Amino acid sequence: MVLTKRIIPCLDLKDGRVVKGTNFLNLRDAGDPVELAQRYNEQGADEVVFLDITASKEQRGTIIDVVQRAADQLFLPLTVGGGIRALDDMQQILRAGADKVSINTSAVQDPTLISRGAERFGTQCIVVAMDVRRNFELSPERNIVGLPDGRECWYEVVIYGGSKPTGIDAIAWAEEAESRGAGEILLTSMETDGTKNGFDIPITSAISGRVGIPVIASGGVGTLDHFYDGFTAGRADACLAASVFHYGEFTVHQVKEHLATRGIPVRL
């Protein structure tokens, strides 16, 4: 059986509204999360992701009421992340109607949260989100990745919405997340986020080749072919996008039709 590739709209939330920025900065309003999620539901999205992008930085929990409103109206899997620091937070979000929780900063600070979450709720519920950026200070203990322009770098994990470097190698962290029970990796490159220049193919492909769990490519879609590149060159299992959907440049259905004509198996 051929596994279909997933198209996932991502809704970054701040103060209960959907926002979108470039390289994690200059956020602008993009609408009501439940209305947008409903639209993507109708367009044939495979899943929707809600990320409460300032929850960790502001040291508060995720907005449960938005999750409940969305879960009441949607008939597709919902993943929720942002400000999840404990098993109780996970339980609250799953109880509110989410299918999966996404952990990022808290997983880096306490990797046992991945294994404890997987043990209690099942690996299928635990998504480890990784924000990464290129670091050109090479050293032998890093996983070196070649870039299309011939340069080499390693990718560093950053936390708190991209504002704090950790010194952690992204490929090693993805492998650890898998070994601890993560069911999926949601990979966002700060280099490409919001740029419309396409996914960061070198790191997407590198991590996809090193882990056995699904990798969701995120950050940088601007054209229909960027989705195709994410699945082929990037070897991703799912492609996630935000602004091209929020501002009506493409519908999910248009993306899937384009992919189907190019031989990518999708659920139409």
Automatic annotation (TrEMBL):
It comes from the Archaea. InterPro entries: Aldolase_TIM, His_biosynth, HisF, IGPS_HisA/HisF, RibuloseP-bd_barrel. Its main location: cytoplasm. The active site is at residues 12, 131. It is found in: Cytoplasm. GO terms for molecular function: imidazoleglycerol-phosphate synthase activity; lyase activity. It catalyses: 5-[(5-phospho-1-deoxy-D-ribulos-1-ylimino)methylamino]-1-(5-phospho-beta-D-ribosyl)imidazole-4-carboxamide + L-glutamine = D-erythro-1-(imidazol-4-yl)glycerol 3-phosphate + 5-amino-1-(5-phospho-beta-D-ribosyl)imidazole-4-carboxamide + L-glutamate + H(+). HAMAP family: HisF (MF_01013). IGPS catalyzes the conversion of PRFAR and glutamine to IGP, AICAR and glutamate. The HisF subunit catalyzes the cyclization activity that produces IGP and AICAR from PRFAR using the ammonia provided by the HisH subunit. Heterodimer of HisH and HisF. This is Imidazole glycerol phosphate synthase subunit HisF. The gene is hisF.
